[in-house]
Amino acid sequence: MLQLEGLTRRFGANTAVDGVSLSVPAGQMVGVIGRSGAGKSTLLRMVNRLTEPSSGRVIHDGTEVTALRGQELRDWRTDCAMIFQQFNLVQRLDVLTNVLVGRLNHRRGFGATLGTLFKRFSAAERAMALSALARFDLAEQALQRADTLSGGQQQRVAIARALMQQPKLILADEPIASLDPRNAQVVMEALRDVNRRDGITVLCNLHHLETARHYCDRIVAMQKGRVMFDGTPAALTAARIRDIYGVSEDEFDTAPEMTAPALTPAREAALPA
Ligand SMILES: Nc1ncnc2c1ncn2[C@@H]1O[C@H](COP(=O)(O)OP(=O)(O)OP(=O)(O)O)[C@@H](O)[C@H]1O
């Protein structure tokens, strides 16, 4: 169970996240939605302490995450894998080595230059990385440089790398915002698959309502740093959206920053072959 208690982050006079309290049971897939500037990234980054809260607490299975220091904090960051909008792969390295990088957190005091990295991993770790790649249909690309892959493939490599950490949680910050609809769908399916099959809790920031509805068990809607809705996709009706954001669902979804809508059968049929 992940608990956020009164989590707040101020940047000067601006309160980016304002007293957010949530309890997330292990194994849940939560979509955090909101328009640009709502505080979604800041909220996610406070969970693994990439951003320090101004006040409030994060507690995981009884451990106060917000009090961790040193090695314990590093261990917590291994438990929480992060997926970024821009994939964050080492472009000049091959795909397999990028995935193996996910193992580095498991080695204390491990030092190696990127060039010598591959040789430092055991046969078992390489097999684990290959099987993570195969799971996302990327085994054939294992020895290609990361920069030869499409965005959707790169994001799946990032998910495979995250799995190498053997995390308890995945924090995905706009994982599909740079992808076309087809790739967005494949990446969301990969995230849902690790949630369902591996039981990993997923917190996923999304701009697009339909994507959150389709893939998540629970939706948290933020505005101006606050949680305005927390419930099932079915409960987030068009009327609730209008109440919260003062716009229709279509207007919410077509804001300029929302570039990667989910593929519905109707949308898929409309795509060029
Ligand atoms: N490092 C920072 N320094 C100052 N202000 C910040 C910083 N990070 C975020 N903010 C501000 O906090 C508010 C929330 O930003 P945040 O990035 O969390 O929102 P978001 O919902 O993730 O938006 P987006 O979808 O555009 O990424 C914004 O007003 C933003 O300008």
UniProtKB/TrEMBL annotation:
<keyword id="KW-0067">ATP-binding</keyword>
<dbReference type="InterPro" id="IPR003593">
    <property type="entry name" value="AAA+_ATPase"/>
</dbReference>
<keyword id="KW-1278">Translocase</keyword>
<dbReference type="GO" id="GO:0015416">
    <property type="term" value="F:ABC-type phosphonate transporter activity"/>
</dbReference>
<dbReference type="InterPro" id="IPR050086">
    <property type="entry name" value="MetN_ABC_transporter-like"/>
</dbReference>
<dbReference type="GO" id="GO:0005524">
    <property type="term" value="F:ATP binding"/>
</dbReference>
<feature type="domain" description="ABC transporter">
    <location>
        <begin position="2"/>
        <end position="249"/>
    </location>
</feature>
<keyword id="KW-0813">Transport</keyword>
<dbReference type="InterPro" id="IPR017871">
    <property type="entry name" value="ABC_transporter-like_CS"/>
</dbReference>
<dbReference type="InterPro" id="IPR027417">
    <property type="entry name" value="P-loop_NTPase"/>
</dbReference>
<dbReference type="InterPro" id="IPR003439">
    <property type="entry name" value="ABC_transporter-like_ATP-bd"/>
</dbReference>
<dbReference type="GO" id="GO:0016887">
    <property type="term" value="F:ATP hydrolysis activity"/>
</dbReference>
<keyword id="KW-0472">Membrane</keyword>
<keyword id="KW-0547">Nucleotide-binding</keyword>
<dbReference type="InterPro" id="IPR012693">
    <property type="entry name" value="ABC_transpr_PhnC"/>
</dbReference>
<protein>
    <submittedName>
        <fullName>Phosphonate ABC transporter ATP-binding protein</fullName>
        <ecNumber>3.6.3.28</ecNumber>
    </submittedName>
</protein>
<keyword id="KW-1003">Cell membrane</keyword>
<dbReference type="Pfam" id="PF00005">
    <property type="entry name" value="ABC_tran"/>
</dbReference>
<keyword id="KW-0378">Hydrolase</keyword>
<dbReference type="GO" id="GO:0016020">
    <property type="term" value="C:membrane"/>
</dbReference>
